[in-house]
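User: Predict the structure for this protein chain, please.
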Amino acid sequence: MKFVLLFTLIVAAFADDATEIKEEENVLVLTVKNFDHALASNDFVLVEFYAPWCGHCKSLAPEYAKAATKLLTENPKIKLGKVDATVESDLATKFKVQGYPTLKFFRKGSDAPMEYNGGRDEAGIISWLNKKTGPAAVEIATTDDATKSQEKHDVFVLGFFKDQTTAEAKAFLQVAAELDTIEYGVTSADEVFAHHKVDKDGVVLFKKFDEGRNDYDGDLTAVEDIKTFIKGNQLPLIIEFTQEAAGKIFGGDIQKHALLFLSKKADSSKAQLEDYKIVAKQFKGQALFVYLDTDVEDNGRILEFFGLKEKDTPAIRMISLKDDMTKFKPETSDLNAAAFETFVKSVLDGKMKPHLMSAEAPEDWDKNPVKVLVGSNFAEVAKDQTKGVFVEFYAPWCGHCKQLAPIWDQLGEKFKDNEDVVIAKMDSTANEVEDVKVQSFPTLKYFPKGSDEVVDYNGGRTLEDMTKFIESGGKDQGKGGAESDADEPDEEEEDETEPKTKDEL
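Assistant: Here is the predicted structure, written as C-alpha cells:
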C-alpha cells in the first residue's frame, strides 16, 4: 500500500512538472510538454512562434508583453503565450510555421487555430483579440461612453441605428466583425445622436488626425461600400512606414503607393511633407502616400529594395503592388508639390514606364567560372540560345545564398570548359529584369540551349543534383526539391526579409 501511494505521488509530481507553465513578463512560456495543457486551461490563447535571433520578434517582444500585462485586468480570459520554434521544432512543424514571428489564435475546444493578422503593437494586439472574443461593436449608451471610446482609440467607427435589428444595422455589424483592425461602437441613444448632430441612421468614422471625422453617405446595406469607406479614411493622408503600420498600409485595397524617403531631422523635411500632404489629398483613394525616415535603421532594406542609398535621399518612388511590385522613378529629382503631382499623375495615368534597377557590369564579369550578371548584360548572356545558362538570383545578406555560394562556385568550375554551358549569378537586390520575377532567395532559373523558355529549378542543392539537371538539358529536377532547405526559416532572411512581396515589405 505504501508503495502504491509513493508511486502515485511520484507520477503526480512528474505530471505537475510536465505541465508547469512558466511566465516571462506575463507571457506564458510554452513547450511541447505544456502546450496542450495551456490550451485546455484557458478560454483563449494567442501564441507567438519566434526565433531568439529574429529582429522582428525582438521588436514585437515588448509590445507583446505590454498587451499580456494589460489583459490581466482588462480581459483575463485571454492569455498570450510564446514558443521558441528553434527549440520546440515539433510544435513549429505541427502548426506549419514558415517564418518568424508567426502568431496563431487558439480557442478552447477548437483543433484549428486562427491566423493572427492584427497589429504588432500593444493596442493592435488587444483590439484584435477583443474583437475575436467579444462583440464586434460595443454598445454606446451615453454621450460619455462615446467620448471615452473616441479618446481611447486613434480611429473609432460608430454606427447610429435607432433599431439595431434592421438590415442596415446588421450590415454595419457584419463590417465590424469582418474588418476587425479598428474599434467599433453602435448606438440607439437619442443623446448620442444629438451630440454628434446625426439626425438619421448612419456611420461615422472619428479619428485623431487630418479632418477628424468622416461621415458615410452611401447605401447602409452595402457591406463592401462601407468597408471601402472605412479603409479609405482610417489612415492619415500621409502615413509613416513602421512595422506596426505595415499591416494597415499593405492590407488595404489601394494597390499603388507613393513612398517619400527623407530624414525627419533634415531642415527641408517639414516643407516636403507639407507638399506631399497637399498632393495626397488630391489623389486620395487612388494612391496611398507613405513616407520613410531614412534615419531608422530598419528602413535600410526598403531603400535597398528601391535601389536607393542614403546619399540618394530625399527621393520619391512609386510602386504597384498589383503588378509584381513594379517600381516607378520620377524623371526629375525635384521634391515639391508640383513635382509630386506630375509624377503621381503620370503613374496613375499609365504614362510612366517601370523603373528597372541595374548595377554597372564589372569589367571582369566573365573572368571567373561563375559569370556576373547585371540588368544591362542579362539578356545578352542569359538569352543567348547558343548555350544553356543556369542563373542564381541572390541577395548578399541571404543565409541560404551564402550556404549555396561554394557549391555554385564548384558548379561553375565543373562546367568552365564546356562551351555549351554558362553558370552565372545576379544580385537581385541591385538588378531587375522585366520578364524574370524573383520572389525569394536564392531563386535558380535555367535558360535552355535553343529555346526561349525559362525553367525554374526546384531540385536539390548539391553539386551532383545540379550537375544532373544541367546535363539533362534542364529536364531532370531529381527528388531534392521538396526536401530543400529553401522552405526552412533562415536567420538572416527571416530577421529582415528583402521585400519581394507586399507581405514581406
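The chain has four domains: 2-132, 135-233, 238-348, 370-495.
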